[in-house]
Amino acid sequence: MRAPLTDLPIVLDEAAVIVGDLAILDDISLTLAAGSPTVLIGPNGSGKTTLLRLAMGLLQPSRGQVSWGGRADALPTQRAIVFQRPVMLRRSAAGNIRYALKAAGVARTARAARTAELLALVGLAELGERPARKLSGGEQQRLALARALAKEPQVLFLDEPTASLDPAASKAVEDLIRAVAARGIKVVMATHDLGSAKRLAGDIVLLHRGRFVETAAAATFFSQPATREARAFIAGELLVS
Predict the structure, then answer these.
(1) CA 191/CA 162 separation, integer angstroms
(2) How far is 138 from 172, CA to CA, in rounded Å?
């Protein structure tokens, strides 16, 4: 029997994204493999969001290659992304999830049970009928995660998932990310929050000015950074300019 297709590993081979004369990303070679969360860090403007979009398949590289499970043309059916400011549909929290389930091709007869399961997973079981746009920022972020999980992805990309959230809301989102990773879903997350990176990351990727600087297991990166840029970033001294 033929083995089922997988999007992992995701391999970027000397990939670049160039807009006009500006290299948003330049010469990025990186492998994202199954396992614990990979966290992208770096100053604002370092290229984290662009790298997520490239690995998701939303952008084409200006040069170099991106492949998913050894295939350069893999459709994003096994990948999902949650943006920093997710858009809520004008319907209830449950309605947002039902819409995502329909888009994922889940049978109508299975949607009610799956909707209830996802609402419970993200801690919104009691808020299913509340208009999504009336939810708090943290609740909206968890709802966006539920929508992304509707397609049962192998890989979940998260762009600054705790940005602008208060500590309690941030903890709820971080707990959910751990639960997602425990299910065997590969999480690739961009953040500027070093505390969040320390708590969640299995491995760290540091970007600066659109270039790959350093990657290491999280414990090693924070205790023994190998590059001047990594030491400066941990100290809060690495700037874009």
Answers:
(1) 8
(2) 8
CATH number, domain with residue 121: 3.40.50.300
DSSP 86: P
How many Å apart are CA 231 and CA 223, to the nearest integer? 10
Q: How far is CA 10 from the centre of its chain?
A: 13
Q: Give me the amino acid identity at 127.
A: L
Q: In this structure, is residue 207 part of a structural domain?
A: yes
Rounded CA separation 159/13 (Å)? 22
Confidence of residue 5 (pLDDT cuts 50, 70, 90): confident
Q: What are 218-235's pLDDT values in tens digits?
A: 999 999 999 999 999 999
**For the whole model, what pTM was predicted?**
0.95
Indicate the number of domains in the chain. 1
Residue 5 placed within a domain: no
Task: Tell me whether residue 190 is in a domain.
Answer: yes
Dihedral of the alpha carbons of 114, 117, 119, 123, in degrees to the nearest 10: -170
**Residue 1 maps to a domain:** no
Residue range(s) defining the domain that contains residue 38: 10-234
CA atoms within 13 A on the CB side of 111: 17
